[in-house]
């Protein structure tokens, strides 16, 4: 199909080239040869009269024109996919479909293993592709980068549907030798050094937000990009990590850690399941949503 002499099939190639910034990776994702992808890029460059991607060091960087095209092209492709796929039957037991989910490593350590177990049992040929949250979830959903996103409720967009997945209380994790383990009060929580997870971009760590809501501002000399690393980063120190209870449960099974209830009521983390409004009728995504919700119930039942 062509529009004003542009082969619309090339839009899929351009979307992947901009997103992956690699001819070889874009070729792999589209299941074409690298030579064929290079040819597509040449045709796109000729049509738009712009290099679109330029080699900078070992990777390719999109030009300003490419960045301007990225969002509208992604929106077009999401709409086409939703229209062409449309509501249809989904048979879990025989499906070979691949679903993508954007999740944090917190979710990977807690609810996602239960999702994987359920899918393996009910839909053994279905594939799950998990990708990290590298930008605001609302943007990820808008761009159609995943079938489902698990994200804190505070970061979800009202432009797309979402539903509550789980509420996870915050607890304090520390080394078993930390003198605060047996006498953690509000003042000790306030004056202790903390280890936190720094979300991508300028977002504030949820633990710091929850503490600030009750008037507690803390010193955070240690910041990590990974939720899963926090318990280990307090080992051998007198520092504290305020983390979700499910994460603490998953990461402190070995000796050496103490999990302490905070001396003040902190707002639990609300995790929500978010999807693109155009993909809501998709029976496959509806099924995966249901499995994820059931997995969260199973996880909660293990604690209760």
What does this structure look like?
The structure is a single chain. α9 links the parallel β10 (193-197) and β11 (219-224). The longest helix is centred in the N-terminal third of the chain and has 22 residues, at 64-85. Helices cover 42% and strands 22% of the residues. The mean pLDDT is 87. The strands form five sheets. It has a five-stranded mixed sheet with strand order 6-5-7-14-8. The chain has helices spanning 9-20, 23-30, 34-48, 64-85, 105-109, 111-122, 137-142, 186-191, 206-213, 230-234, 245-251, 283-303; strands at residues 2-3, 6-7, 53-56, 59-62, 98-103, 127-132, 148-152, 162-168, 170-175, 193-197, 219-224, 241-244, 257-260, 269-274. α1 (9-20) packs across α2, α1 crosses α4 (64-85) and α2 (23-30) crosses α3 (34-48). It is an alpha/beta fold and 304 residues long.
Please give the structural blueprint.
Elements (H helix, E strand, L loop, with lengths): L1 E2 L2 E2 L1 H12 L2 H8 L3 H15 L4 E4 L2 E4 L1 H22 L12 E6 L1 H5 L1 H12 L4 E6 L4 H6 L5 E5 L9 E7 L1 E6 L10 H6 L1 E5 L8 H8 L5 E6 L5 H5 L6 E4 H7 L5 E4 L8 E6 L8 H21 L1
Parallel strand pairs: 5-6, 5-7, 10-11
Antiparallel strand pairs: 1-2, 3-4, 7-14, 8-14, 9-12, 9-13
Helix pairs in contact: 1-2, 1-3, 1-4, 2-3, 6-12
Overall pLDDT: 87
Query: Residue share in helices?
Result: 40-55%
Structural class: alpha/beta
Tell me how many strands there are. Answer: 14
Element string (H = helix, E = strand)? EEHHHEEHEHHEHEEEHEHEHEHEEH
Low-confidence stretches: none
SS summary, helix count? 12
Distance between the termini: 56 Å
The best one-word shape is: globular
Task: Please report which band the strand proportion falls in: under 5%, 5-15%, 15-25%, 25-35%, 35-45% or over 45%.
Answer: 15-25%
């Amino acid at each position: 199909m062509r529009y004003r002499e542009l082969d619309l099939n090339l839009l899929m190639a351009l979307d992947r080239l901009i997103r992956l910034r690699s001819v070889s990776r874009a070729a792999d994702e589209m299941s074409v040869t690298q030579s064929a992808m290079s040819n597509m890029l040449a045709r796109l460059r000729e049509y738009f009269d712009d290099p679109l991607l330029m080699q900078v060091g070992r990777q390719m960087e999109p030009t300003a024109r490419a960045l301007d095209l990225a969002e509208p092209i992604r929106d077009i492709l999401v709409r086409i996919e939703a229209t062409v796929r449309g509501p249809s039957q989904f048979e879990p037991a025989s499906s070979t479909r691949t679903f993508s989910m954007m999740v944090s490593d917190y979710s990977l350590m807690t609810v996602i293993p239960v999702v994987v177990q359920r899918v393996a049992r009910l839909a053994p040929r279905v594939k799950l592709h998990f990708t990290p949250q590298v930008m605001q979830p609302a943007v990820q959903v808008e761009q159609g980068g995943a079938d489902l996103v698990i994200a804190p409720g505070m970061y979800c967009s009202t432009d797309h549907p979402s539903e509550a997945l789980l509420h996870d209380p915050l607890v304090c994790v520390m080394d078993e030798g930390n003198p605060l383990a047996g006498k953690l009060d509000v003042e000790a929580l306030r004056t202790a050094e903390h280890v936190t997870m720094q979300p991508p971009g300028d977002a504030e760590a949820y633990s710091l937000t929850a503490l600030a809501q009750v008037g507690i501002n803390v010193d955070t000399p240690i910041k990590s990009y990974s939720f899963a690393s926090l318990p280990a980063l307090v080992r051998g120190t007198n520092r504290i990590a305020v983390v979700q209870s499910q994460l603490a449960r998953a990461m402190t099974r070995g000796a050496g850690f103490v999990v302490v209830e905070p001396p003040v009521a902190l707002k639990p983390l609300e995790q929500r399941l978010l999807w693109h409004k155009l993909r809501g009728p998709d029976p496959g995504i509806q099924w995966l949503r249901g499995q994820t919700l059931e997995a969260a119930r199973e996880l909660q039942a293990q604690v209760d």
